[in-house]
What does this fold into?
Amino acid sequence: MMDARNIESLTERGEFYLCLARAFMTPLQPESFAAMRDALADDLAELGESLGYDCAAHIAAYRDAIDATPQHLALLQCYSALFLNPPRLVAINATSYLDGAHGGGTVTALEQAYLRCGLQRGTDFHDLADHVAVQLEFVAWLYFAGAEAMSAGTALPALRPEHFLHAFVTRWLPRFIQDLEQEAAHPEVPANPYLALARMLAAAVSVDAVAEEIAPKERRARMAICKARHERAERGVTAEDMAFIARKLREKGLSTDHLAIPPELRDEAQGYSRGSPPGPRKGSRYE
It folds into this structure.
């Protein structure tokens, strides 16, 4: 009976995080808006109550915000203004809060975490491994995989979801919410359902995240790495950093022309377009 309850709990947690993962994807299709308007709040409310997450007030706020969003285009415009169009107001590639730039060391650490569980970037995925939706989809996958392993009596995944939440999500989530709150405070900003979703995520993470027990030597090494990344994020990229990068590129015979373009404009200047994260591999209540 205990195993059955544990399996159900893991599955429900997977569903909750998968709902949020899909909600933080770019709502390109009208079906995305319809699902967020008609089904998402009810699904999250049912799961949150079952799992003991303190998110009822945030679900009510989400209902108000999505009800005030008149149509698909309005939701897409809200998402684009917040996360996509320069100047981006909130970092959907969340390790920008930790490394001070896209593609820093935390992205590599995330990719290594995915590889530990045998997961690699899909061919339809055109963003970095630190996209909020990708991280949450991975958490959902870990919960689903844990439930399946427990049911079959096989080995659990190489990484536990509560450890991943603690190691990564708890570190960027407060600043992510802070940026969303700052934008919501402006009276001219239209209804923003993403702030309520981020607060729901925080309510779940406060229950689920658990620090991994590691050897003291490894803990000191990880703390040193995190400190260095934090200092770099606070300091930003200096002229000396750019000179060092340019010198290393020239030593390898590579072009440095792109360094003269501001980071937020490089994708556009090079003809790239931002894609949406891949669809989840598991079904959920939020279709």
About this structure: The chain has one domain: 2-269. The radius of gyration is 20 Å. Residues 2-269 form a domain with the TorD-like fold (CATH 1.10.3480.10). The chain is about 65% helix and 0% strand.
